[in-house]
Amino acid sequence: MRRHTITPRPGWQQTVEEQGLIYPLTRYPDDSLRPYWDESAYYAFSLPEVEALEEVVEELHRMCLAAAAHIVDHDRFADLGLTDPRVVRAVTESWHRRAELPSLYGRFDLRYDGTGPAKLLEYNADTPTSLVEAASPQWFWMEERFPGADQWNSLHERLVDAWKRQAALLPPGSPLYFAHSAADELGEDLMTVGYLKETAEQAGLPTDWISMEEIGWDSLSGRFVDNQLHYIRSCFKLYPWEWLTTDAFAEHVLDTLDNGGGTGSTLWIEPAWKMLLSNKALLAILWELYPDHPNLLPAYVDGPRELATATGYVAKPLLGREGEGVTLHAPGSPPPVSEEPCCYQELAPLPDFDGNRTVLGAWVVDGESAGLGIRESAGPVTDEYARFLPHVIL
Q1: Is residue 85 predicted with pLDDT exceeding 50?
Q2: Most CB atoms closer than 10 Å: which of 84, 134, 237, 280?
């Protein structure tokens, strides 16, 4: 793994916008616009290095499924902050019937510098983004800048194939709706949902658009409906389950949750059992089940334990995103003050490449390793101001 600088292509902004990345620039607090898609540098990997990382990703995914089974079988929901009995029942039933429920994708965030084993930082298997830039613009960038080279990137093909394989699990005779939140001003959710809708259409599925805010509840039929009062039988939503089960429609969601079929029910993708994999407490369960595993960092939910004095630690809200609420604590620091439950993970500073802190986003589609996206930050936490850089296998 090496970082190389390179001159950006003329007209790169228009190019990546035409390839689906609708926000190639990020607005900073000083109101300046700076590249989010950053092709002034790229990362190069060797093929054996990528093949080894692929094996790590698939092993981590298997371990996460085993941890999810442990949570359900041993009633560890409270560790995840899941205390509502109805939500626990919904997740449990969804887990037991997971073979009947479509489940598409997820993204592992890994610490890796090219010299030691990759370390799991977190797993977002419910609403991961940065998908479009990983699947499309960086592939075309590679073809233009390094013709004949390769890339850890089979995302598009695997997404289309996943929809084809899982088509039989969808309710027949109605479109699969794709929903995003209209409150997303940046457009990242809309872009991601639009791309996934395109992959479903390439797989031959009938689809339709809707925003989460447009989904209505028909009290007469006891069904979720679109703005034309058409019954929504299945819906891919880029809307976290912790919101879906706590907002104004939560009761209706749980009453009509399709965990395998039923009149008036709605099939949501990702399924409810993905709540088990997108919660930072998963990191602590993994460390409990696989202590000293080379691809894991020590993690706990009841406090930092020995990390407070030995290595330092990172306090992560169980349901935080984009680095929100994450705090770093050096050895001997005062105890953290947090108003919400956290996971305490060993402090493992992100690798520094020429002053850039790098994290690997390794994708899983339908349970298989599928691609890589790389983000860089100026600070120690990968946040909303991170930049996306392409990569190539040389």
Answers
A1: yes
A2: 134
CA 154, CA 42: separation in Å to the nearest integer? Answer: 19
State the Cα–Cα distance between residues 83 and 303, nearest whole angstrom. 20
Find, among 252, 268, 259, 260, the residue nearest to 210 by Cα: 268
CA 89 to chain centre: 24
- Rounded Cα–Cα distance for residues 272 and 235 (Å): 13
| Alpha-helix runs per DSSP H in the chain | 12-18, 47-73, 85-96, 131-135, 137-145, 155-166, 188-202, 241-244, 250-255, 281-289
Summarize the confidence of residues 205-224 as an average pLDDT. Answer: 95
Long-range contacts of 289-294 (CB under 8 A, 24+ apart): 289/63, 289/66, 289/67, 289/70, 290/63, 293/63, 294/117
The three-state DSSP-derived secondary structure of 93-126 is: HHHHCHHHCCCCEEEEEEECCCCCCCEEEEEECC
For β-strands 391-393 and 41-45, DSSP reports them as parallel
- Return the structure tokens found at 170: 């969808």
Name the region of 195 (left: φ>0; alpha: ψ -120 to 50; beta: rest).
alpha
**Rounded mean pLDDT of the chain?**
94
User: For residue 390, what is the enclosing H or E element?
Assistant: none
Cα 38 from Cα 393, distance rounded (Å): 18
CB 139 within 8 A of CB 195: no
Torsion of CA 372, 322, 327, 330, to 10 degrees: 20
pLDDT tens string 273-317: 999 999 999 999 999 999 999 999 999 999 999 999 999 999 999
Report the alpha-carbon distance of residue 98 to residue 209 in Å, rounded.
25
* pTM of this structure: 0.95
